[in-house]
Amino acid sequence: MLIKTIHSWEIPESRATCEQVFLNRRRFLAAAGFAGIGIASGVRPGFASDDPTAALYPAKVNPAYADAGRKITPEAINTTYNNFYEFGTSKRISKAAEALVIRPWEIAFEGEIETPFKLQFDDLIKKVQLEDRVYRHRCVEAWSMTVPWSGFTVKQLVQLAKPNSNAKFVKFETFNNPEMAPGQKPSLFGSSYPWPYSESVTMAEANNDLAFMATGAYGKPLAKSMGAPIRLHLPWKYGFKSAKSINRITFTSERPKSFWEVLGPNEYGFWANVNPEISHPRWSQATERDLETGKKIPTVIYNGYGEQVASLYDGLKDELGAALFK
Ligand SMILES: Nc1nc2c(c(=O)[nH]1)N[C@H]1C(S)=C(S)[C@@H](COP(=O)(O)O)O[C@H]1N2
Ligand SMILES: [Mo]
């Protein structure tokens, strides 16, 4: 039986006071001439300066994605306002996420591929073409941000894995280590999340040029709070599809059940394409709150990336019904 857990995103906007207080306080500190969180100490949270891949960043800007049509969200906000349930259900997990050990980091490639194999992250990054892209990010909780990522296309990862003809889906899994990530410890009350966190896409989605494996942001290796050393970013889908800290990639013939789909199938479906016309069962998706300014802006179908991805869903009208959200 599914025991209902209350997520932070289920709190109506009017009650999200801590967050507002935090953002207002940041503005106050900035106005008063103080540096924001993470800058005050001179150390960016989640960034290890001795990272052996540091010299790879920033990568070369891909001109097609140099401008997301929105102002880039300040780094100090993105590295300290996160969803990363492995480290807690609040947005303030950046300190807890420092416990994430990212070296060595082995990634397993499994399932419907020529030969299953494992690859160290530091070796994988040498086999791919890194580039910089600015992308919009729209969380299902109706907040959004704009991030300058570095990374490589999921397409390159697929090529590296050599899927066979049975492969129809790609599943991305996060680590599972309750010692390191307290959120993964079984709950005393018996309710538990279906760890490890996982998300899947179709092969066509994986091979779309927009689908991105992010390994860096803001010209540096990825902060731990943002899913170091490697995470997905699928800018036309709600944020929960973009799994963090990935260490297993499995090609499957059947559609896998993802983390949030198991927890709440009516609310966090497989497709999860951004769509302002399809309300979440408990709130509207018509607008979103920009993390920096706190201003509400209209949400755009496919988060503004329809030209590139809408055709992926043409043949799926029946399955999707009205609800591209699901
Ligand atoms: N492993 C893992 N990946 C995750 C999540 C998570 O809790 N665990 N949260 C998701 C959600 S809901 C969002 S909005 C984004 C948040 O990414 P950010 O913290 O870099 O903004 O990560 C996604 N990936
Ligand atoms: Mo999210």
Main traits of this protein?
326 residues; alpha+beta; Sulfite Oxidase, Chain A, domain 2; 8-stranded mixed sheet; 5-stranded mixed sheet; 8 helices; 13 strands; 15% helix; globular; disordered C terminus; binds ligand MTE; binds molybdenum atom
What can be said about this structure in brief?
The protein has 326 residues and is of the alpha+beta class.
Could you explain the architecture of this structure?
- By secondary structure, the protein is an alpha+beta fold.
- It has a single domain, classed as Oxidoreductase, molybdopterin-binding domain (Sulfite Oxidase, Chain A, domain 2, Alpha-Beta Complex), CATH 3.90.420.
- 15% of the residues lie in helices and 21% in strands.
- The chain has helices at 17-31, 75-78, 121-124, 154-161, 203-206, 259-263, 306-309, 317-320; strands at 60-61, 106-111, 117-120, 131-138, 143-153, 169-174, 198-202, 212-217, 220-221, 231-233, 246-252, 287-290, 296-298.
- The strands form two sheets. Strands 1, 4, 5, 8, 9, 10, 12 and 13 form an eight-stranded mixed β-sheet that branches. Strands 3-2-11-6-7 form a five-stranded mixed β-sheet.
- Strand 2 (106-111) and strand 3 form a beta hairpin.
- Mean pLDDT is 86; it is low at 8-43 and 322-326.
- The structure holds the ligand Nc1nc2c(c(=O)[nH]1)N[C@H]1C(S)=C(S)[C@@H](COP(=O)(O)O)O[C@H]1N2 and molybdenum atom.
Strand and helix layout:
Layout: H1 17-31, E1 60-61, H2 75-78, E2 106-111, E3 117-120, H3 121-124, E4 131-138, E5 143-153, H4 154-161, E6 169-174, E7 198-202, H5 203-206, E8 212-217, E9 220-221, E10 231-233, E11 246-252, H6 259-263, E12 287-290, E13 296-298, H7 306-309, H8 317-320
Parallel strand pairs: 1-4, 2-11, 5-12
Antiparallel strand pairs: 2-3, 4-5, 5-8, 6-7, 6-11, 8-9, 8-10, 12-13
The structure holds ligand MTE and molybdenum atom.
